Amino acid sequence: MTFNPLKLSLFQQVILSLVLGVFAGIFLGEPAGKLNILGNIYIKLLQMTVIPYILVSLIGGLGRLDMKMARYVGTRGGGLILFLWTLAVLTLLFLPLAYPKWTSASFFSSSLVVEKKGINLLDLYIPANPFYAMANTIVPAIVVFSIFLGVAMITVNNKEGFILSMQNLTDALMKMA
């Protein structure tokens, strides 16, 4: 009986590669670092499919819904999000009450601390240019754009060809990953 790595599932291949990588690091030591390029290639190939997959699967998935199903998913999903946000806010409000008051010592000068630039949530979530967001991997903006386009597709007539194309692209991206 011979060992054929092509008969293993993708999960088994990844685990086998992980184990072989650990053993190479243990037994070969520093020279195994030259194999780092193979790991970087693998990671970059996986990352290459993430943004297009998010875009295509959200647009196609939401676009195939009819109005009744979209309303049902929207109310259920919106209710779940509202519940989770409420839970998070309540946790943030009451969690400090579980810990005693601490007085902190000053071991450094606060004048040495450089203030970080704040995050602009508008730019993070609302894309002025969706192609810029995709090129710079601004995932929240890509998701918002995809959701808006998918919801707009719900009311479009004769969308079956487009939805089939989105499904085919989703399948192709999954095969790449």
Summarize this structure as a short list of keywords or feature phrases.
7 helices, extended, mainly alpha, 177 residues, 67% helix
Structure description:
Helix content is 67%, strand content 0%. It is mainly α and 177 residues long. It has a domain of 98 residues. It is extended and about 65 Å long. The relative contact order is 0.13. Keywords: Cell membrane, Membrane, Transmembrane, Transmembrane helix, Transport. This is Cation:dicarboxylase symporter family transporter. It is a multi-pass membrane protein. InterPro entries: Na-dicarboxylate_symporter, Na:dicarbo_symporter_sf.
> Beta-sheet strand percentage?
under 5%
**Cα separation of the termini:** 30 Å
Shape: extended
Helix content: 55-70%
- The number of strands is 0
Element order, helices and strands? HHHHHHH
Class of secondary structure makeup: mainly alpha
Query: Helix count?
Result: 7
Rg calculated over all Cα atoms: 24 Å
Unreliable segments of 5+ consecutive residues: none
Mean pLDDT: 87
Q: Major sheet: size, sense and barrel closure? A: none
Protein name: Cation:dicarboxylase symporter family transporter
Organism: Dissulfuribacter thermophilus
GO molecular function: symporter activity
Transmembrane segments: 9-29, 41-65, 77-99, 131-156
Write the layout of secondary structure elements.
Elements: H1 10-28, H2 36-63, H3 67-94, H4 121-125, H5 130-135, H6 139-154, H7 160-176
Organism: Dissulfuribacter thermophilus
Membrane topology: Multi-pass membrane protein
GO molecular function, one term: symporter activity
